[in-house]
Amino acid sequence: MVVLVALTAAMYAAVLIPFKLLPIIPGITEIRPANVFPVICSLMFGPAGAWGAAFGNLIGDLMGGTYGLGSYFGMLGNFWFGYIPYRVWRIIGKGEPIPWTTRKLLLFLPVTLLASMACGVQVGWGLDTLGLVPFHVLAPLITMNNFAIAAVLGVLLLPRLYPRVKRWGLLYTD
After folding, report:
1. Other Cβ atoms within 10 Å of 64 Cβ, number
2. Which of 12, 68, 94, 102 is most buried, by the most CB atoms less than 10 A from its CB?
């Protein structure tokens, strides 16, 4: 599991850092194609995916030049972004997320939205508490940014990665 945390964190940070050059709110958030990793790694690696998302976001802030007190709220928000899909899928998903069926796809999207909202609320609240960005601006922005990327790329990447990860015996259930 430690290796899966490190793998998730490394993938997440490696894709976050180059996109720091495309800010939505400078120093706060940017266009983040990496947002797909917390969700799909959560469904493949369970809690290790959540911890990897948390540490990957912190590393992305450290290496991307946006580190500050808000980074810890970002770390916590990204933990929820990675933990909620795993937990909710275990409770109501009834089996593996792949192969896609209409039911599984219709479950994947609200689960991704719920995780995106949890991250947006956590980070928005934290940065509003620090007086950096108003909650009513940041929370919806992060929620939509997370959901749009994770929903589109997740639908494309999860079916390609999940079978390989399963063959390698790296699923959290293994």
Report:
1. 17
2. 12
